[in-house]
Amino acid sequence: MKQKAIWTMAMAAGVLTMTMVGIEGCGSNIVKAQEADPTVMLMGITAGLETAWNQGDGAAYASYFTDDADFINIRGDIFSGSKQIAQVHGIILAGPFKGSHIAITMRALKVLAADVAMLDTDQTVTDFAALPAGVVPTDNGTLVTHFKYVAVKQTDGSWKLISGQNTSELPGRTILPPTI
Predict the structure, then answer these.
(1) Which of 13, 62, 102, 111 is most buried by its number of CB atoms within 10 A?
(2) pLDDT for res 145
(3) Does residue 173 belong to any structural domain of this protein?
(4) Number of domains in the chain
(5) Distances, alpha carbon 152 to alpha carbons 57, 114, 156, 161, 165, in Å
């Protein structure tokens, strides 16, 4: 299989270079770094999720999750494993969220152990055609959610999401600005 570089990012001081690669024809994404700074690698995962959503690619979105991941969506539905996450995202990105745009902001990132981290994000979705049953917009034409993930370091040094839970921000609620 042939690897295709999608993007490269260098920190301002030039200390760390990160490359996100995809295995061509496989739809999987792996985030790796030359140094062991999980913050940069984990930020790469959220950037990849954002890109996959904005391209309407449910398989690419799910490739950031482990094969045994747990995923709780905005309605409280529970999905197990990257295959089911890919299937569901394929449906919603071709349906109510077709052509939508998501912006993901890191609210907090906590490294809990050398191989476990928690990512707390604010996600703003716009340009959606409709919302799934039971989901209400936060504001006119905008859906804001708070998505918390648990990431685990893989044996090859990459990181993947093993758990994610999405909670909708209801209309009229005020949130604090992100901490990072």
Answers:
(1) 62
(2) 96
(3) no
(4) 1
(5) 23, 9, 11, 6, 15
